[in-house]
Fold these 2 entries.
Entry 1:
Amino acid sequence: MKLWDKLMCYSRRRSPWLFHMNAGSCNGCDIEIIASLTPRYDAEQLGVRLEGSPRHADILCVTGPVTHNCVKAIKTVYSQVGGPKAVVAIGSCPASTNVFIDSRTVDGPLDRHIPVDVYVPGCPPRPDAILQGIAKAADILAKRGNNNPPMPEPVTEATTESTTAEVQP
Amino acid sequence: MNFTTALARLLVFPGLLFALPAAWFFLWVERKAVALMQGRVGPPFMQPFFDFIKLLGKTTPPRKGVADLLMRAWPLLAAASAAGAVGLLPVLPMSGGFEGDLILLLALLEVPSMCIIAAGFSSRSLFGAIGSAREAVLSVSYNIVFLMAIVSIAASQHTFRLEALAQLPASPLRWLGILALLVCLPAKLHLNPFSLPNAEQEIYSGPMTEYAGPELALWELSHGLEWVAATGLVATLVAPHLTLWWLAAVVFVAICFAIVLLLSVVATATARLAIDSTVRFYWQCTLIFVVLAISSALFTRLRS
């Protein structure tokens, strides 16, 4: 049984399948994700496969500052990924909402809605940085087993009001 | 063929014990060959094996409003029938077989594609339904050519027994039939000019969209076994008759490998065709060759 667990751990690290989700991104990071799959960087060496369905994926790659429109979609997609799963926030937008901070159409950063494991900063990040982030996420996947991290506390309207009030002069 | 030899063929060679590693190996060869031709390094050896093990350990997110038992049954049925088809291949000389096992092999080869159609529709996903409809149309197109090619080969050699077909020397007519079979293989294995049903990214994952975890692992496995069965069928028809059993096995694997490489080259060099072009290709261009093959087979049979 121990041997099986070791094999499973090793296989999880060697075969991270991605699902790429655009949460209001400007397409810069999306292009870099595609670049990391193309011949120059070739993510398939790590066993990476870009999947069409979130149900097939292990790692959810999210780009963009999380607009109001896509909050529900992000939660749905996250719940559709089978465990064990990891989330990689690609670019500065999902980490901090970047230049869109305090925009009324943005409901970021990403970790207000789903637990994030790896942040890959940059605007956009280089493909090598994205690959490193995916490799780190695969390591986390292998160690995590079937215990998924808890969902973040839902943000109430009152707290949002107060933060915006602080910023305004 | 008695019960023990049948069981040995199904479970050991060319059945599961051989077919599982062969399936993973062929899947790897296809991915690696495509990667090398695109100037990439490609996946490491044993990648399909790691994928399979990882998928076995994943949980399946709940599906609402779907007949769960039915969804579980399709990949199991597909993998089982593909394994049965591999077990029927007469790789070793004097391996037995029975009259009409070619027909059983064809039926078993057809079951996975039926399962894919059923799975897409029973998943109640829009993308699954589109993928299934495409698979059904594709199956109607290439199967005419595929089955007629097999019938022409069988008719020219007066037998529906695979072992007898493998032992008889190949006639020019048989080569015509084998060529028609090779044209059908990309459609049967969902490879690139005819990768319509699972059209990656275009319709998400087609019929597999709602599958996850161990069920998806079984689909991957059945796809790999289909590779072994389909290339193995062509390899048994092409391979020269050898009496040494180990030489026969080595030649069989080598020919299968060559066919996998050939299919990968075609898959890399082409882009996905639209459904109407695919149907037109099979009904207009390929059908003529097969009609030629089958009519000349019947003609030679009448003359003899």
Note: The beta strands of chain A are 17-22, 49-50, 59-63, 86-90, 118-120.
Entry 2:
Amino acid sequence: MIHAIRENLSPNRMMIEGDFHGCAPECPTTACRRVATKINYHHMQRMKIIGLTALLAVLITQTTIAQIGKPFIHDPSTVIECDGKYYTFGTGGGGLISEDGWKWNGGGVRPGGGAAPDAMKIGDRYLVTYGATGGSSNHKGAILTMWNKTLDPTSPDFKYTEPVVVATSDGYEENDAIDPGLMMDPTTGRLWLTYGTYFGFIRIVELDPKTGERVKGNEHVDVAIVCEAAVLAYHDGWYYLLATHGSCCDGSNSTYNIVVGRSKNVTGPFVDNVGRDMLQGGGKMVAATSGRLIGPGHFGQMVIEDGIEKMSFHYEADLDQGGLSVLGIRPLLWKNGWPVAGDNVKEGTYEIESERRGYALELNVDLVRMPVARGWNRNPNDPVNPVPSQELKDVIPTWPTGNIDARIGDYMARPNQKWTITAAPDSSGYLGAPYYKIVIAETDRALAATADARVITVPAFTGAPEQLWRIEQLTDGTYRIMPKVVPNSKEKLALVSSGDSTPALAKFDVNSDNSKWNFKAP
Amino acid sequence: MKRKNKSLLPVIAFVILSGLLVDANTALGQAPGQRPRVVLPPIPIKGDTTHTLTKHFIQASNIKKEPDANGFIQRWLLLEPVRKEIARNNILTEKYLRATFSADNFSTDFIVVPKDGKKVKVGGEELKWYALESKTYNFNLYHFTYAINKPPYGVLFWLVTVINCPEEIKNVRMAAGVNSGGMFWLNGKEALILSGDRDMIVDNVTSPLLTLKKGKNIIRGAVINGPGMCNFAVRFLDEKGLPVKNFSISYE
């Protein structure tokens, strides 16, 4: 569902405005990973020996992190922003709050108990829905809705209205009324609610967006089987039904996964990429288990701005956090008309390629030639031996020691073109991801923004905000790279290719390849 | 939250999780909120709750029946369920399925066609055969158990149907989806097996290329399920993945 939140950009689109700050203390679990990386880094700095590239590759693991803090939740509602904070509610009551969208802790308040809520902002109020049961053995259930003027439990305006029943299951019909999901149709302004689980059908009903009550006389429509936690989304003329298949509540053995079908009609039929109706169990994969993050389920869509969308959900088990279920937030991509979970850039060493021309971001230093061998006019019996790659030690004596400008050039796999990206040591972040530091591999030379909208490297990373970078995957799969701050400026600028070979900071343009980047294996 | 597992396990899990939210707030990020209280409003019964086969099925007859428009086979002989103790469907490994279907088989003659209404002993229980046609593309065995007033969970069903081909049809694949595990045989030979905790997804598993011979072809199936709504759908696909429909279906 499109949730969001602060302001309508248009009748159909909503935006979460970024006020992305926050230097929260490290959580123990993530801190372990961070400290390990830091120790590894400084250790390598001291070593400065041949072969560090290989060592770095081993020591900097490409971890995927869900969220930090105490992001423990099950069946989360779509993450929603209220007065500069982010909220999600879970099964059993209560929920999580985050100042920055990256570090989460308890504190959310949702009365009513029950399970698997959802929430969205409508006008200047928040509509919260939940199932009275988590699925009962007799399949009797009810979906309720209630309003609040704010989600901040410390606000004097915080008060839920009396919940009203909008859908039920009687224990005999082919439906169990749990797992509600909300979607406001951006083309009509009509409010739809999906609900149901494996017992029979997923159903769609219409609610009145002014009251949150069921539209009088509205009859349900059956749209899917063998899934749960279904929710509608709208994109580019299509209605998408996203639902969770597989089994839950079995920790690391849970097989939860998020699938999708689509339709031109809000009430279906929803068909997958091979023509299977979701009433036949169809569904194209959106998100599955990823590394040590097991069993994603309970999808929610967040449209941040044109070209940037995110999905909130939970993993059934984060093996790095005790195997507990945790909140997940990932970029949401649209490929060939289908949604698919994207990825935050993983810690590691990359070529940073411009989408504009395919050139690579590099340190502006002179080329150091490599030995040349030619494949012609040679004795065919001469031995053929591998040529070692150029290494940092081969070139770093030629580099200036002060600030060095960044440049964009032909990628030649040279040391001045390889960037190591790690999460910011201060654990600061924005919605769904940490800020990153970007340094030339095997060095502490860090990419930094300047007050005059240039991009340079400084000899050593200091943690200054202009050295921290917000890297977000766009809906087309490329990435936007933005400094946390531009010195002496309040403007939100992004790294762009102002020419094929010239990086600069400028306003992000989702329709221009100048504003887009790729991270490739070096 | 998944309710696929219809036993008490998910309810227990729900209660435990909710309890943890209250009792272990220092470990969990989500605030405690309130203890889960299941307070349901009065919910009127919306439809017919009598135990009757005719709600979802038609008594099979000798009237010629073809697969439906998408090739699904809706006419089957079904044996009343064999009771099985299955707490979670992820125990339905291939090894488990083979052992169970071997131990609780109604007949080792895989081309035998049982008679509608006859009884057979399996696992010490005397069970009855029903010749039915599903009103939908799939065959909902939960509805079958409700109709005959048998327990719906922890069940093993044996199925038989007869495919009558006017001519030999080469290079077809049997395609099946079940909730949650199953196995199918064609003319006495294993065609496919669906192991693990599966959802009833059309064409979830397909067989190697097969030949439907001219005349009668016997399909036997076994579908097993612990908690959840037991269900299956079977059809044949040609080499292009299109449904095969040029045959009729009988039960004898």
Note: Chain B is about 15% helix and 35% strand.
